[in-house]
Write a structure and sequence with these properties.
2 copies of one chain form a homodimer. Chain A has helices spanning 5-17, 25-32, 36-48, 64-86, 91-101, 107-121, 128-139, and strands spanning 52-53, 61-62. With 147 residues, chain A is mainly alpha-helical. The longest helix of chain A is centred in the middle third of the chain and has 23 residues, at 64-86. The model of chain A has no long low-confidence stretch (mean pLDDT 93). Chains A and B meet through helix 5, helix 6 and helix 7 of A and helix 5, helix 6 and helix 7 of B. The structure holds a DNA duplex (30 and 30 nucleotides).
Chain lengths: 147, 147
DNA sequence: AAATATTTTTAGGCCAGCCTAATTTCGATG
DNA sequence: CATCGAAATTAGGCTGGCCTAAAAATATTT
């Protein structure tokens, strides 16, 4: 089985392949802030397990299997980012946190968060309660005291 | 510096000390689902760094410093659990997830989540929007279409 | 008090992920 | 086409956190 970090590699490769259609060790290394040597190792693992297509010193691409995983991860990550930013977490922090927790959350939890994001997005108007929450964050007072 | 797992150990010790005033290697091991040998190692680290008081083969307690960390972790964890259960994540899963992400979230994020929990708790009545969210989860339909 | 059971520690290993340094290969350029 | 620089790989190491097995200390039972 793959370790958790593998998912990050797959997603990185997915992103980096957009357009060009392939990517390279160094790009991946830069993207993940890791040394090329480390990428090399991971790539041979990933290719052994059938997630990436690559022969040594050649272009790197994902297999079907790899793309599938990458897309899932991407979606999870995006859900988390949307969720956190909706709550007012600054984008940069939201991205960082999303990236670190996306691999460990239970699918049920992710599903709930996804629903929550949808719930907000499906709102016909910007939800009152979110406004209220913002105000609550600023003032510490709940606008609905006399509700 | 301490690894992330250290926080779990500190919190576990904190919990286990309630009442008795001390705890023991085996208890900690059971609580964290880890072998006693592993606890031994971690304890010597923690005591070297001044978080726990213990001489070999004796009772284990936290130092001031240890208690402080444990309390913070505990609060974070509780916030997360409340937060997730409020959203409808089953308790067991919420606990599991809280435990795994509590160490890695940015403090800003934790703060936001804390506010969110407070926001809900401070509501004079059970918030309408939460009801709506529940319904949305069940039916997939947003109750406010014509809002 | 001796024998036995339990708890704790030590020693030695494993795995994931990272690193550096040395090497190999690729590819661009004179 | 020989050379030289950049990219990739290999080899060897490190750390955190876990493990098992064996040894040592302590506690309990007889």
């Amino acid at each position: 089985m793959l370790g958790r970090r593998a998912e990050d590699y797959l997603e990185a490769i997915y992103e980096l392949c957009r357009g060009k259609g392939y990517t390279r060790v160094k790009e991946i290394a830069d993207h993940l802030k890791v040394k090329p040597a480390t990428v090399s190792e991971m790539l041979s693992k990933l290719s052994r397990e059938g997630y990436v297509l690559y022969r040594k010193r050649l272009f790197v691409t994902l297999t079907e299997k790899g793309v599938e995983v990458a897309r899932e991860v991407r979606e999870r990550r995006e859900t988390l980012i949307k969720f956190l930013t909706a709550l007012g977490v600054p984008k940069e922090i939201a991205e960082r946190d999303a990236c670190t927790i996306e691999h460990v959350l239970h699918e049920v939890t992710v599903e709930k968060l996804k629903m929550f994001v949808k719930f907000i997005e499906n709102s016909p108007i910007y939800p009152k309660w979110l406004e209220h929450f913002e105000e609550f964050c600023k003032t510490g007072k709940h606008p609905c005291r006399f509700f």
